[in-house]
From TrEMBL:
The gene is LOC114243330. CDD domains: retinol-DH_like_SDR_c_like. SUPFAM superfamilies: NAD(P)-binding Rossmann-fold domains. InterPro entries: NAD(P)-bd_dom_sf, SDR_fam. The keyword Cell membrane does not apply. One of its GO terms (molecular function) is oxidoreductase activity. Keywords: Oxidoreductase. PANTHER family: PHOSPHATIDYLINOSITOL-GLYCAN BIOSYNTHESIS CLASS F PROTEIN, PHOSPHATIDYLINOSITOL-GLYCAN BIOSYNTHESIS CLASS F PROTEIN-RELATED. This is Retinol dehydrogenase 11-like. It holds the Pfam family adh_short.
Length: 351
């Protein structure tokens, strides 16, 4: 069996080299390594989902009178997160590219009258600022921010702000939004019940590192490495911002969450879905089950003592060594502030 697997891997590597033979060999080898490491991270995620299936549950509280802001949510995991927040009687504001979809969404959800939407395009810092302004104009206090929206893979693209698209959508847009909404989170939180922000990341961060000298990957773009970097950045900044909050006795807690290996449209266009569409339905979580760990991060009271935690299946997840390096966390935080045009010393101070 091991011989068959080894032969398959070698054949795949040879085919990959042939298709990409115009690239320098060092880039080809790096891409193959990332692809294999990402498959390993995915397999580990599936095993984690199976082993901890009984832990993946949440009892929704009554959070009437509280306000949640969620990015994305028109489909997939985000829709299920919104359903959970509405069932908990929260007022939910979502940021999506087509806010007119909110009418259809609200009609299909319990307490749908508590749902509203504003336009948000995370590829544009201008759009992020406009979204935050619209939210803050009506809601000066926010109890919960869920940075949920995301993209995975795709051809190299620079946004209008000059950022690699996966970095922009998954990390920088959310980083800037957290900065803009932090004053409202501070106002809503207290020592007994802090406000929270939740970054939806992925076990796909595990093979990743931050390319500080070429964070937009202009020298060489690998879609897998770019995705891993963006998800790693979400995890690291959740930890570092939470650290800043704790050091300054600010009642806001930050968490990052891997929702599991979930059957969503993020996999559309991937080789895995083209080759094994049946496997996704058989082995992957449904979006409803994928939302559970996110809702756990939103509501579980025991987590108030564990700010900065990376969560998978409602327990502490396994994060890579790079993410735990405090020097790297600080360096990423400062670089992110520089890229979005804010003073690191005044992060979260916009008034």
């Amino acid at each position: 069996m091991s011989v068959i697997i080894a032969s398959a891997v070698l054949s795949a590597a040879a085919f990959y080299w042939y298709v990409n033979r115009d690239k320098p060999i060092k880039h080809i080898l790096k891409e193959i390594r990332y692809a294999l490491d990402m498959q390993g991270a995915g397999a580990g995620g599936l095993i984690d989902d199976w082993i901890n299936v009984s832990r993946n549950r949440i009892a929704l509280p009554d959070a009437a009178g509280k306000v949640a802001v969620v990015t994305g949510g028109a489909r997939g995991i985000g829709t299920e997160v919104i359903k959970g927040l509405l069932k908990a009687n929260m007022r939910v504001i979502i940021g999506i590219r087509n806010p007119e979809l909110v009418h259809k969404l609200s009609e299909s959800m319990e307490n749908g009258q508590n749902l509203e939407a504003y336009k948000l395009d995370l590829k544009s810092l201008k759009s992020v600022k406009e979204f935050a302004d619209n939210v803050l104009h009506k809601y000066p206090k926010i109890n919960l921010l869920v940075n949920n929206a995301g993209i995975m893979y795709g051809k190299y693209e620079l946004t209008t702000d000059g950022f690699e698209s996966q970095l922009a959508v998954n990390h920088l847009g959310h980083f800037y939004l957290t900065h803009l909404l932090l004053p409202a989170l501070k106002k809503a939180g207290n020592l007994c019940e802090p406000s929270r922000f939740v970054n939806v990341t992925s076990c796909g961060h595990y093979p990743g590192q931050i390319y500080f000298d070429d964070i937009n990957m202009k020298e060489h773009y690998d879609e897998t490495a770019a995705y891993a970097q963006s998800k790693l950045a979400q995890l690291m900044t959740a930890r570092y911002i939470n650290k800043i909050m704790e050091e300054n006795n600010i009642p806001v807690k930050g968490y990052s969450v891997h929702p599991g290996i979930v059957n969503t449209d993020l996999f559309d266009g991937t080789v895995f879905k083209r080759v094994f569409p049946w496997a996704m339905k058989l082995f992957f979580k449904t979006p409803e089950k994928g939302a559970v760990s996110i809702l756990f991060a939103c509501f579980n009271k025991e987590l108030q003592k564990r700010g900065g935690l990376y969560i998978s299946n409602c327990i502490e997840g396994i994060s890579n060594r790079f993410s735990k390096n405090l020097e790297y966390q600080k360096k990423l935080f400062e670089l992110s502030c520089q890229l979005v045009g804010i003073d690191a010393e005044n992060f979260g101070n916009t008034e």
